[in-house]
Structures are given as structure tokens and as C-alpha cells.
Amino acid sequence: MPRPLWTGAISFGLVTIPIKVVSATENHSISFHQYHREDMGRIRTRKVCEIDGEVLSQEEIGKGYEVAKDRTVPVTDEELDRMPLPTAKAIEIVAFVEADSIDPVRISDSYYLAVDGQVAAKPYALLRKALERSDKVAVAKFAWHNRERLGLLRVREDAIVLHSMHWPDEIRSPESLAPRETELDEDEVERAVQLTDSMALDDISGFRDRYREALEELLAAKSEGKALPAAAGEGEEEPGKVMDLMAALNASVKAAKETRGEDATVHEMTPGKPRARKKAPAAKKTESGTAAAKKQSAGKQPARKTAAKKRTAS
């Protein structure tokens, strides 16, 4: 078992469940050191006192809060541990809610809760069974790293998982980031939905970090004095380049089907049941004679081609 990050208890009504908190994830990222280009000497960060210039060890460093300029109030770990906070040593369940009611943006790090001693086995199993049978998740409060946090408890296989969550006032509004309202062609929407269907998966466990694999190959080649791996991505579409949206959707559907070993033939969108379309503003109803003639001659063509000619005419 990984080293516990925190020990305490789950407070479930009048039930107390001693637990240990261990990280539910592992970091497989490759880390780099900073070095001097000229002589390959390591560059290190030192903690120096700005008064006497002395380099300090971690044991000599304490916490403090600056209440005014040139005035800092020292705070010790013992003082923080003695704070009268109910959640200081307990994960206190405060509510049970539907899982779908939690915005994923609020979820942060994930941890497994392991039983701390045999006495915790039965209440732990009781809480796990209650979560499974009610089909709900538990909202909890707990104190960690000098602040009270909001958490989410759910069941994963046979373990209870704790997700730390952001408080509501910590979530920024996306209102200013959303694009302005854009008129979409119904054929484009249907082809986009077809693309989502062709890319649907029941399981995503097969994905892996290709960047880390490529980085490992690069480091192995450099350490062994071999030629570096060939660069990838040359000739790809530049980001932000204007494209034919329908052509891109058709190509994407075809590529997705080929990847899944399905029939890669992409059929043109054909008129079916009448579709409700937004009426164009009055200012846009006037068209040139040439554009109107093109639209009339294209009346029996597939809907996608008709939509394309409409865009050309405008």
C-alpha cells in the first residue's frame, strides 16, 4: 500500500470509521533538471534569509502571515492542529446527492480511503453498501493543508474514493468565454452527430501517454548516441486555418470508420423528413439573379450540396 497522506476518520451520522488516505493516482511524468549549458553544472534553488543571507534547511523554516508591511505573525503547526474545527481530524459527511448533480469542473484530486484497523471494517463496508444501494454520492467536509475543503465520496470497485472539490465561489463563470450565437446548418449538425456515433467507445482504458513514450525514445537515443526519432506531425492542418466544415466532418467520419474497421463509405446527406430551419432575417432574403438560378437548378441535388451552394451564393 502507498504511504498514507493523512489519517483520521469518516463521520457518518453517529458512526465513526477510522481510515487512512492514500493517493488514487500515480505521476509518470518525466522530470528534467536545470543545468548550466557551458559546463553541465546543476542549477539548484536555495532558500535564503533576506536579512542575513544565510541558506536555510527545511527544519529552520516556519510559517507566518503578513498582517501589515514589515509585520509578520508567526504560526506553528501545533497551533494549527489545535484549532477548534470539527473536520480537523474527520471527513464529515454532510449530505447525499445524485452523482449527476455534481459539476465535473468542481472535482480536483482523488484519493482512496483505506480502513485503519479491523474495527473499521464493518462500518466501512456499511457505508460502501449504503452508497451502492442508494445510487448516490456523499458530500463531505474535511480540513487538510491548513484549510477546510469540500469532498465527494463514491464507490469504485470495493473501495471508497474521496474526490476533493472546489468551493462554489472558486469556479469561474464561462459566460465571457462562450462564442456568440452562430447559425448552424442542420446537415452539419447531423454529420457532427454521426461523427460522435462513429467515435463512440464503451471503454477508454486502452489510451496511453504517447508523448511520454516518444520522450523516453528521445532520451534513450540521446543517451546511446543514436539518431533521433523522426519528427511527427509535418504537413498537418495548421490550427485556426479556415476550412470547409462539412468536408472536414465527412473526412472525420470516414477516418473514424476506417479506424474501427467499418465500411468507410461516406454517403451524401439526402433529404428526408422536412427539417425545421430558422427563417433568415428580412435583410438576407434578397439574392442576386445568378444565385437564385443556381439554387433552383440544385433543387433535386442532395441536401449537403444544396447547403454548400447556398453558402457559395451568399
Outline:
This protein has seven helices and nine strands, in the order ββββαββαβββααααα. It has 314 residues and is an alpha+beta fold.
General description of the model:
Helix content is 26%, strand content 21%. It has helices at residues 77-81, 121-134, 186-198, 210-224, 245-259, 289-297, 303-313, and strands spanning 6-12, 15-23, 63-68, 71-75, 90-97, 107-115, 137-143, 148-156, 159-165. By secondary structure, it is an alpha+beta fold. The strands form 2 sheets. A 7-stranded mixed β-barrel has the order 1-2-6-9-8-7-5. The protein has a two-stranded antiparallel ribbon with strand order 3-4. Helix 6 (289-297) packs antiparallel against helix 7. It has 7 helices and 9 strands. The longest helix is centred in the last third of the chain and has 15 residues, at 210-224.
